[in-house]
Fold these 3 entries.
Entry 1:
Amino acid sequence: MNRRGGSEAAEIRQAVETVRLFIEQFGESRFDPLNVVDFRPANNRAGWRRGYGSTQEWLIPPETWKSEVCQGLDPNLVARTLAERRMLKRANDGFQSVVKIEGTSKRVYIIAARIFEGSTDGTV
């Protein structure tokens, strides 16, 4: 069990690790900051970011979520896994929230900074 990385299903661990890695790799370079007046837009934008430290969030459009962040995984399983661990902020009607960005309402997956705390099984 130690070699495997824990007692939970490999798909569950992989879901958390995949999203965590995507944000670690591209959290600054491919996510435009919200509520910042003077910034240079990201090349090949993957979404937006807001907040700082423990309140930071990454907002990811559904198309990017499916094609890049969850590439090779079931996007619904990933969203459900993160939501159960409070790493994804759920909306009342599902996993995507509606947020006003640049004057337009957009559906996004909101990933919380909690994704970097503790282990992949939701324990800290």
Entry 2:
Amino acid sequence: MSPTRLILCRHGESEGNRDGRFGGHGPAPLTERGRAQAQATGLRLLQEGADAIYCSDLVRAEQTALLIGQQLSLAPQQTPALRERSVGIFTGLSFDEARARYPEEYGVLLQREPDVAPPEGESYLQCSARASRFLEQVLTQHCGQRVVFVSHYLTVHLLVLHIMGVKLTADAPRVYVQLHNCGLHRFEHYDDGAWQVLALNETAHLSVVL
């Protein structure tokens, strides 16, 4: 049987990205640049097609997926499983505002401990668990097909680490993956559970976006 092909895509530039604000579960929409990035991504994926698109139900991911789906003649399926990590009290704040209002909590956040959640938010481990559970469901449902996920910076990052078998423990080496807005990360999944990494942060299709 053919491998299942998975493409992970971070949403296009949002107003929060542009303004340097914590996104979390906030409602920041795409900028005009973000819309152009999504349209360029849809044209790139049109060259190979897809069988299904799943996206976070947050507006910036939903808008990105809709623009991609228009090119592919596919209706994206929304799910909270692909939401960004909730940053709780920091949602919508600029980094300077967060530091000024919650200096102690902000300092803890910067330590990036995998099992520590900001107040009213969730930890890396919690975010990874919900996204990876959803991934396993999709692999079963779409075996042998090509599937696109449109999600967010940290959620995509954690899915990449999950696929590559990188453990989220306090004593494990930190691994960081570059993720541009609408960058594509490509994988193949085989019947025996093995993964093959085809590309990380593919951005050539974005060269047309100013």
Entry 3:
Amino acid sequence: MLTLVIGDKQLSSWSLRPWILLRHLDLPFEEVRLPLDTPRFHQEIGRWSPTGRVPVLLDGDLRIWDSIAICEYASELAGGAGWPEDSRLRAIARSVSAEMHSASRRCAAPGPCRRRAAA
């Protein structure tokens, strides 16, 4: 059984990305949420993550950290699902994913990843 340790899906797109893909691929997993920037997070993160950050995916004694590495591993577990079959389209999809991933590390998201109530 896979275990995905994440922060807040509404505030952390890094946590949200592998969660969405695991759900999309219909891979069974246990979700462990650690509230970011809290005493609980700082007390418990060392138990799960070798880097002290989320997300991290546990598969037995294997620890995979960083959302893009988790997504690649999940795709492999699902027999390559999640990527286009055509190698050229797959290359473009990987380029878009890498660009999104690296850009998100350089700048903050404009706001929470949730729908706002209509006024």
